[in-house]
Amino acid sequence: MARKGEMFAGLTVALVTPFRDGKVDEAGLRKLVDDQVAAGTNAVSPCGTTGESPTLSHDEHERVIALVCEQAAGRIKVMAGTGSNSTAEAIRLSKKAAEVGADGVLLVAPYYNKPMQEGFYEHYKAVAEAVGLPQVVYNIPGRSAKNIEPETICRLGELENIVAVKESTGSMDQASQILNGSNLTVLSGDDSLTLPLLALGGSGVVSVAGNIVPKDVLAMIAAWKEGNIEQAQQLHHKLFPLCRDMLGLATNPIPLKAAMQLLGKDTGDVRLPLTRLSEADTANLTQTLKTYGLL
């Protein structure tokens, strides 16, 4: 069965937002897009969790998406993060993304106000009716405080332009239920679960690790698709300690930005309330990067 969101199959990199002197580093952001184009990445996703969207002003949020679309210039797809816990705000941001040329939008589950399942449905339906772009539901109960149940996601999949789900529940049963009950494309929202999800019928990943090792993530997905299961497993087990250690040291994107700095790709500090990685954790991260062969 052809799935609706195969345009976003493969590797989508959840871009960090580089900062310099307290402002968005626009030249740095352009370079990040160029680097992903050069790596062969399928899509980039600005203004997600990794892009520190909660601390971007409205103007910054819109500017980052516009700049990424401009720099992508059709060379790589753009899945713009336009979610909000205000339906009106999600619609406004999604309309702006459409205006500047995004290929689709990534809509995080409304957080903090904890809607009922019908509220989730009506929220996404309202955005889908207001904006014609392909839309990806981002289900991450660890951050949004409530799960969008698989029955609700399958129901959303009946709407024409809701095409995929970024699955960040960690539940293989939930992923299986969505794949069974809809023709939505399922993308992993956790780097360490990409291969298991591919095995269930998932189509790719919205990746944090792809900021530093996009070619390895691409190679793992390609190996699986080509039926080279052993190679896919080897790459999974190579990537797994990096993903576990990098993402487990502190809240994303704190360790990622620290790793990028260690690798000579400085994207600046994280914004408060996030804080810099501690010296002890930086030492651990340095060892992880050395073990992987990056340092």
TrEMBL record:
The protein's location, in the record's own words, is: Cytoplasm
Q: Which GO annotations describe the biological process of this protein?
A: diaminopimelate biosynthetic process; lysine biosynthetic process via diaminopimelate
Q: Which SMART domains match?
A: DHDPS (SM01130)
Keywords noted in UniProt? Amino-acid biosynthesis, Cytoplasm, Diaminopimelate biosynthesis, Lyase, Lysine biosynthesis, Schiff base
Matching entries from SUPFAM superfamilies are given as: Aldolase (SSF51569)
CDD domains (alphabetical):
DHDPS (cd00950)
Briefly state the protein's biological role: Catalyzes the condensation of (S)-aspartate-beta-semialdehyde [(S)-ASA] and pyruvate to 4-hydroxy-tetrahydrodipicolinate (HTPA).
NCBIfam families, A to Z? dapA (TIGR00674)
* Descriptive protein name: 4-hydroxy-tetrahydrodipicolinate synthase
